[in-house]
Amino acid sequence: MKWIVIWFLACVADIANAQYVPAVQPDLPINKHSYEQYWHKKNLFKHMELGLTLGSTGIGIDLAAPLCEFLQVRAGYDYMFPFQKKFHLLLQNEESSLEAYYDMTAKLTMGNAKLLADIYPFKYNKSWHITVGFYYGPSQVAKLESSSESANTYAGEVGYVQLGKFTHDIDLNGVSYSKGDDYHMKPADDGSILIKTCTNALKPYLGFGYGGRLFPSRYDWKVSVECGAMFWGGKPSQNVHDGINLCKDVDDYPSNIDTYIKWCNYLLVYPVLSVRISKMLF
To answer: How far apart are CA 160 and CA 221, in angstroms?
Structure first.
């Protein structure tokens, strides 16, 4: 991780010998004459702005500073609101005729630091920009977990939850299973059920955006809209507490979680759409 950050900053610094374009007025200038009056040479990092973002990565805060004529760097943190969806899983035992329902909650747990570079490709139009960089945070981005009430109620019960069929031959807890056998997921010793959705901790990002003044008469307030993609580094994993990866080891899921798991199977990148409002500090 340290060497990736060093490499990124070295690449950014390598192009910082051009004229500087501060992160102040992306809607200016409109011609060469006004451009030469506004932009100044060799004033690297003489301006800084504070930004607030809201979008598909949650709510975020960042600091931005210009490096050169066509580049500014942003560093900050995004926190995803813990949106939840509740449903039930059937706990059963054929020998004792046990049939009970676990109360389950699906919850987003995303939170990432970010280091991004905004590239302004047009010399006399600083409204459009391309953004590259990366997000870094815990590999767990969501989880399915049982309620404490269900865990306490069924702790010690000899039962299982039918979560699908194995996609290949596998050994689980000392027992061999063949492709097509039913996957009977047993709760943990304390009665809990936990399924974690995990991706790479380091997630590259690529996007583009458009911005301008928030207030026509104030150059120090800006607003911009950005869309892009956060690359997860492949298919997310759905890790059950017993070591099974639902995305790789199992299919034919129960109908109440089928959409959730298949959505994770197909989502190789995370779509990013955000609005950013910023204020120049100096």
So the answer is: 57
Examine the pLDDT at 183 and tell me if it is beyond 70. Answer: yes
The helix or strand, by DSSP H or E, that contains position 214, with its residue range, turns out to be strand 202-215
Whole-number average pLDDT of the chain: 83
Instruction: Assign 65 to helix, strand or coil.
Output: strand
Amino acid in position 182: D
Question: Which residues are registered as beta bridge partners of 165?
Answer: 182, 251
Q: CA torsion sign, 173 to 182 to 193 to 186?
A: negative
C-alpha 48/C-alpha 64 separation (Å) is 6
d(CA 54, CA 59): 5
Q: Identify whether 29 is preceded by a cis peptide bond (ω within 30 of 0).
A: yes
CB 200 within 8 A of CB 233: yes
- Tokens 């054929």 locate to 94
CA-CA distance, 159 to 150, in Å (whole number)?
13
What's the whole-model pTM score? 0.79
- Exposed/middle/buried for residue 29 (C-beta within 10 Å: 0-12, 13-18, 19+): middle
Closest of 208, 187, 64 to residue 128, by C-alpha: 208
Closest CA to 222 of 53, 35, 18, 79: 53
Q: Give the residue among 88, 21, 26, 17 at the shortest CA–CA distance from 51.
A: 26
Residue 282 has pLDDT above 70, yes or no: yes
Mean pLDDT of 43-57: 87
